[in-house]
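Request: Give me one sample?
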Amino acid sequence: MPFWRSAPEPLLRRAADNRRQPLIVVADDDRDTREMYRAFFDLSGFRTAEAANGHQTLLMVRQLLPDVLLTDLVLPDVDGFAIARELKT
């Protein structure tokens, strides 16, 4: 018999539901890559949003204030380095 007692299962589930799940923005011009990352993060319990280009990424990050930004370095309009510089300022 363990020397600790765990909370009843319904209480653990309720506590987990009350916590805000982290938001990850996935920025990539390749739709298949975005969908792959989104499926993985959704199944792992994260909220996700997708951006297909640099301008969309910058707008989304400013509006949603995600916990994590996962971006491709080579995007059609604004590359990942420029996005990082812009967000850093």
Observations:
- Strands lie at 23-27, 47-51, 68-71.
